[in-house]
Amino acid sequence: MISLSDMFDRSTPPPIQSVPFAFRKPTRMVLANNVPLYIIKVSGQEVVRVDFVFAAGKWHQTQKLQAVFTNRMLREGCRGYSSSDLAERLDYYGAWLELSVAMNRTFVTLYTLKKFFSYTISLVQRMLFEPTFPETQFQTIRANNKVQFMVNMQKGDVLAMRALRRSIYGPFHPCGMQVEEEDYDALQLANLIDYFHRHYGSRTCSIYLSGSVDDVVVKQVESLFGSFEWGNGIPCGSEGFEICPDGETSNIIKLTSVVQSSIRMGTLLMDVNDEDYLPMRVLNTTLGGYFGSRLMKNIREEKGYTYHISSDLVTNTSQALFLISCDCLADKSTEVIDEVHREMYRLQTELVPEEELRMIRNYMMGELCRNYEGAFSLADAYIYMEHLGLPSTYIEKTMEAIDSTDSVRLQQLAQNYLRPELLHAIVVCP
After folding, report:
1. What pLDDT score does 392 carry?
2. Are the CB atoms for 101 and 67 separated by under 8 Å?
């Protein structure tokens, strides 16, 4: 009898083979009222997701917290339905509503079973067309958020990130502007109603349909949101806010409520459409973008200073923010920063070994395919691409960059961008 061990040699891993992977593109149509509709159809589970994306966000508010609270209040009642009525009906139909705000976009997202789509999408239409902005709910939400803000202000990672953004962008840029306790008290319901009328409507809206979408679903969306002009919102471009760093590139903040040191380091790099951006993502992964990165191996595994450390390219705006994040032993922040600088210097002076680069390529390709394998994640990708002005071929270009960026290019990028003297550094410690 032949055993399984005789049939398979477990000591030799199978060869890695390249497998072609094509990403589904959305179908684009323009409704009668000029609202663009993007459709990603995937058979399988009978679930539909609808994203309403409005071309306005924190960039466009005239008062702190205005954009977020306007978005948050949409679920608190509309003509004919109180907040509890809306919540109960959505829950009854097994639907889920997500509300969020970015720098220059606002999102209203509905997840719903396809068989109940006509009921749940009608609720969303009423919510977007005729919200009531009840005073009682506003007062409660404002008070609760103020309390949560005060709790967060005792967290080292929150204070470090606030200070880093202010250091990099300056206090008057939307990315560096800090919310304070008194801003909650200053916000009034009239500010939210004004923001809603200025920025919500068919002229500022794009709609994304994904999941088990058929002609009936499309016709219902077209009838409810595309057959006439609705809302008063008018398109407006992103304001030309100037980046004015506050002059402090490093700072130490003492906080009695923490037991670890929180470190945030960063600097602004290139625009996301720059030819260096996608290869820079490969370099960032090498430095601190995955569990086997240089920073993790050195500072976590060898030195034991931290449980986790990472680097990232943050794209709240089209200009990428290079960010290094770490919570470490209270007395090791100086050592951690020194080791970060040392790893940056190594990438400037030493070529990344081919074996390591092959592992990074495989990891990034695997993450790319995993992240974009479903209709909903593809919708996220194309919404992201649209609001940053990226080309429709962005995912394919990302794959090309992962496959083609070699060690020499990584070293050149490290010499240009991974320079310790460019980094702003914030430490919040006990």
Report:
1. 86
2. yes
Distance CA 125, CA 205 (A): 13
Tally Cβ neighbours within 10 Å of residue 92: 11
| Backbone dihedral angles phi then psi of residue 231, each to the nearest 5 degrees | 80, 165
CA 349 – CA 362 distance, rounded (Å): 24
Q: Which residues contact 76 (CB under 8 A, 6 or more apart)?
A: 83, 131, 132, 133, 134, 137, 138, 141
Cβ contacts of residue 120 below 8 Å, gap of 6+? 90, 93, 95, 110, 112
Compute the distance between CA of residue 259 and CA of residue 331 in angstroms, rounded to an integer: 10
pLDDT tens profile 350-384: 999 999 999 999 999 999 988 888 889 999 999 99
Beta-strand relationship, 261-271 and 36-41: unpaired
Q: Per this entry, what is the length of the chain? A: 430
Radius of gyration of the chain (CA): 24
| Beta-strand pair 319-328/424-429 | unpaired
Element (H, E) at 382: helix 375-387
Confidence check: pLDDT of 206 > 80? yes
Task: Choose among 291, 287, 318: nearest CA to 423.
Answer: 287
Q: Give CA–CA dist 343/17, Å, rounded.
A: 31
Amino acid (1-letter code) at residue 261: S
Rounded CA gap, 382 and 393, in Å? 10
CA distance 125 to 144: 27
In degrees, rounded to 5, the angle at the alpha carbon of residue 417 between the alpha carbons of residues 416 and 421 is 105
> H-helix or E-strand containing 427?
strand 424-429
- The predicted model gives 417-429 an average pLDDT of 95
Spatial separation of the C-alpha atoms in residues 397 and 169, rounded to whole Å: 29
| SS3 label, residue 397 | helix
Instruction: Please state the φ and ψ torsions of residue 313, each to the nearest 5 degrees.
Output: -110, 105
Q: Work out the widest C-alpha separation in the chain, in whole angstroms.
A: 82
- Report the DSSP beta bridge partners of residue 51: 109, 208
E strand segments, 285-407: 306-314, 319-328
Token pair recorded at residue 272: 């996301």
Can you read off the two tokens belonging to residue 135?
Answer: 């005073």
Alpha-carbon distance of 339 to 306, in angstroms, equals 12
